[in-house]
Amino acid sequence: MGEFEVPSGRFCVVHIDLIGPLPPSGGNIYCLTCIDRFSNWMEAIPLDNISADTVARAFYSNWIARFGTPHKLITDRGTQFRSETLQTLSKICGIKLQHTTAYHPALLLGFRTAIQEDNNHSIAQIVYAESLRLPGEFFSEPSIRTASEGFANNLQKQMETVGPRTTLINSCRHIFVNKDLQNCSHVFQRIDRVRKQLESPYEGPFPVIERQDKYFTINIKGKHVNVSLDRLKPAELRN
């Protein structure tokens, strides 16, 4: 959420986030997602843990080493992104860090190949000056016959269910906002991390400091924090 300046070129402004835990794959249960704001090019880097050191190393080895140092790095307020390790890496590389509320990147292949309405090109065309080669099964009835079981058959079935995604305009996405949020003095904040057993899905209540169209500024342990409306619900305080 929030307003961001339009970047001047490819790989100048990068958004990163963490997703998981996911079903294990090769010992990895998390992904570090990286998105170039100018072209919308995405990378998903598998991780076996999400310590601050692991996240910083993964971003350096898989993004900076391939695409160069961005001018600005935008993250949410996760502990890994506010760690001394990432702060030091940013200073060494001359990267400006900006923390904002959480966002959630989606699947990669469909976004990379979808034609964007504003420029009539796909993300892959902007980055590589040519389109990605897609499996023919995306567009027609299967022409390759496989055995009824096994890897090839499973892969073909997966390809039959996947196709290029239509580009969505983020501003058109509707989220549920409780109408009582506009009048309440305190709110509960949804916990987006993996919760402990029997842990409540919300924490708080926290006093509301300021209201904006897409987020509230609330007081959490003496700090003013911007939180998206879809993570908040009103708190009813009894005298």
TrEMBL record:
One of its GO terms (biological process) is DNA integration. PANTHER family: RETROVIRUS-RELATED POL POLYPROTEIN FROM TRANSPOSON 412-LIKE PROTEIN (PTHR38681:SF1), RETROVIRUS-RELATED POL POLYPROTEIN FROM TRANSPOSON 412-LIKE PROTEIN-RELATED (PTHR38681). It comes from Araneus ventricosus (Orbweaver spider). Residues 3-105 form the Integrase catalytic domain. GO terms for molecular function: nucleic acid binding. InterPro entries: Integrase_cat-core, RNaseH-like_sf, RNaseH_sf. This is Integrase catalytic domain-containing protein.
